[in-house]
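Re-run with default settings, no changes from the original entry. Doing this only to confirm the output is reproducible before filing.
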Amino acid sequence: MNTTTAAQTANVTVATIRTWARNGVIAATKTAGRWVIDTASLARRITIGAMKRPARKVIYSIETMVAIGGNRWQRNGMDRVYINDWAEFAGIETTRYNTGNISSASYQGYGVSNSQGYKLLGSIDKVWFDAADGKLHARFGYDESRVASRDEVWGAVVAGIRTAIAAL
């Protein structure tokens, strides 16, 4: 079978079929510059792909928030879990001098200036989970970075928290 037919059968792209053939994931031979795919090998690969375990459902709860490093707070009928290291979930990394000033900063693996690091950290003031409504909340700060808007940073925080809970 050729790569186009194999791609349609496996419901993947032709480039994926070629990569599988080059890496030996499926049995294939190259004849006159074209891949000839072994049907039985492709069927085994499709079966293996179908056996992937389903993604775990992310459940926001007091227990999961505490398990990822949150601090529980209860007072006056309110029950919250504060996420004090929200910047870590957003992918903001900083190192500091002994004076407390930022010596280097990065956002999601890319280096940023120290002033932009301060602005990224100042874009969100607090992050908490409220047990009453089962949602994550944030109090936004006054700074806005050129690197990422407040909404982008908040989206990165939520994505990081979801990833951490799914990894539990």
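Residues 150-166 form the longest helix (17 residues). The helical segments are 3-10, 14-23, 39-50, 62-67, 86-90, 114-122, 150-166.
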